[in-house]
Write a structure and sequence with these properties.
By secondary structure, this protein is an all-alpha fold. The chain has one domain. The chain is built from 22 helices and four strands. The protein has a two-stranded antiparallel sheet with strand order 1-4. Strand 2 and strand 3 form a beta hairpin. Helix 4 packs antiparallel against helix 13, helix 4 packs antiparallel against helix 15 and helix 8 runs antiparallel to helix 17. The chain is globular and about 60 Å long.
Length: 468
């Protein structure tokens, strides 16, 4: 009887699946993305958010997003705080720009609310905005984020180091021993690659856990933190309510006026990347699931987008960066998942992270960093679809991609890619290929970088307001 009620609600039998099949698909998807439960808190802790707070926020945002996606949109797509966006949050906003993490969370919250509004069918802006950006620039954005993740991961593994002459250099490989985190990071990366090549589900989490255990037993030196890996003092331990991050955004809104220019740029960047990332991921996994019709329309797109936005809002209130739909959802779909029950299963499993805080804290950076490199590699898969023969598109796409790792900023990559595209089209007298949205976006982005004297145009135009 209970199974029949579930079937009536989700319709998995009609969709060609079963209760066991949906549960198995949910477990498969969870195993492929469970790494976010320790990678995201580890990364956000660098920005100053307490590890336990970030773990609670990560698990809760994933749970809420998955449950909404499953129960409301009835789609097999899983959500969690996004890789790339969390890196931009930490390294591109908090560390590079000196913006407090509370204010950065406020930008994420505002972005989530705006994403929710423009996703409303009655508004319709989300579709117009997505359709106005050339497909190749959207692909370049995701590929650039992949490169950004890779350089962060390589740095945390100790493979990349500073060099005054060449900016970056390879680490001192000749000094690596069995006690070097750099070596075990390499082994972990190759092990994950082999497992993925063999089609193993959960390859990333198996690789991270395996290297962590070896690091604990041997006391391997972590090149990023400068400490030696050690077994957790407590393997289990419930993560309570966040002490600092919960609703921290409310206190940050009073500081927006002092950082209005930077706040708007960060918020707009989060919004654009969230839109591109969600649209690309939903389209990709939706096509795999047979939920894209002959007119290239995604089934349940409005509900899926709004589920994504709702999860972002909850995540920001709890204390994590933007929540988004995961490409790892494809693993569950390949396993036969068809309905929202898959997403609900993933959401419930994500809550297990709340009981494993002690274990997650002890995971060495060199063990978790290979996950960044692997995910970065997976995000490069669409780069081959860019029309590299079209110079009017190839150069802006290339600028978008390389500016992200070279400037350590997703925002700079998106901004200058769009600016370059619009300028080139105008110089080629092909203004008819541009639309008002592209003109507006390029103009606004340029205002954040160019202007008279030592001010940006935005600061020059609104200096009186900014000084309040």
């Amino acid at each position: 009887m209970e199974n029949q009620k579930l079937d009536d609600y989700f319709g998995y039998t009609e969709a060609g699946s079963s209760l066991e099949g949906e549960m198995r698909a949910g477990l498969t998807t969870f195993l492929t993305m469970a790494y976010i439960l320790f990678v995201n808190p580890d990364m956000l802790s660098i920005a100053g958010i307490p590890f336990d707070d970030a773990l609670f926020a990560t698990a809760m945002a994933a749970f809420v997003g998955c449950v909404i996606m499953g129960l409301w949109a009835n789609q097999p797509y899983a959500l969690a705080p996004g890789m790339g966006l969390n890196a931009y949050f930490v390294f591109g906003v908090v560390l590079s720009q000196g913006i407090a993490w509370e204010l950065a969370l406020a930008a994420v919250l505002v972005e989530g609310v705006l994403f929710m509004i423009i996703s409303l069918p009655q508004v319709g802006w989300r579709s117009k905005m997505i359709n106005s950006i050339p497909k190749d620039l959207k692909i370049a954005t995701m590929a650039g984020i992949g490169m950004f993740l890779a350089i962060i991961g390589l740095r945390e593994m100790g493979w990349i180091v500073d060099n005054g002459a060449t900016l970056v250099d390879l680490g001192a490989t000749g000094t690596w021993t069995y006690m070097s985190g750099e070596l075990w990071g390499l082994i972990g990366l190759l092990a994950i690659a082999v497992m993925m090549a063999r089609g193993m589900k959960g390859a990333i989490i198996y690789g991270v856990i395996g290297v962590s255990v070896i690091g604990w037993v041997l006391g391997v030196h972590d090149p990023y933190t400068g400490t030696d890996a050690a077994m957790p003092e407590e393997w289990f331990g419930f993560v309570g309510m966040p002490e600092e991050s919960l609703f921290a955004v409310t206190s940050a809104f009073g500081d927006i006026s002092d950082n209005l220019s930077a706040f708007l740029l960060v918020m707009i960047t989060f919004l654009f990347v969230d839109i591109f990332d969600t649209a690309g991921t939903l389209y990709g996994v939706g096509k795999m699931a047979g939920k894209v019709d002959e007119n290239d329309n995604l089934e349940g797109a409005d509900e899926a987008f709004m589920s994504d936005a709702g999860a972002t809002i909850v995540g920001a209130l709890c204390g994590t960066s933007t929540t988004t739909t995961y490409i790892e959802s494809a693993a569950g779909i390949e396993e036969g998942g068809k309905t929202g029950l898959v997403a609900v299963v993933v959401g419930v499993l994500m809550l297990t992270g709340l009981f494993l805080a002690g274990s997650f804290k002890a995971i060495p950076t060199f063990a978790a960093a290979p996950a960044l490199v692997v995910v970065g590699a997976m995000m490069m898969r669409g780069a081959s679809e860019i029309d590299w023969a079209d110079k009017e598109m190839a150069i802006p796409a290339f600028i978008t991609m390389v500016m992200m790792p070279f400037t350590y900023s997703i925002a700079d990559g998106i901004a200058w890619g769009i600016i370059a595209y619009v300028v080139i089209k105008m110089a080629m007298q092909k203004m008819d290929e541009l639309n008002p949205v592209m003109y507006t976006v390029a103009g606004l982005m340029a205002m954040f970088y160019l202007g008279p004297g030592d001010q940006t145009t935005f600061e020059w135009l609104f200096q009186d307001i900014l000084s309040l």
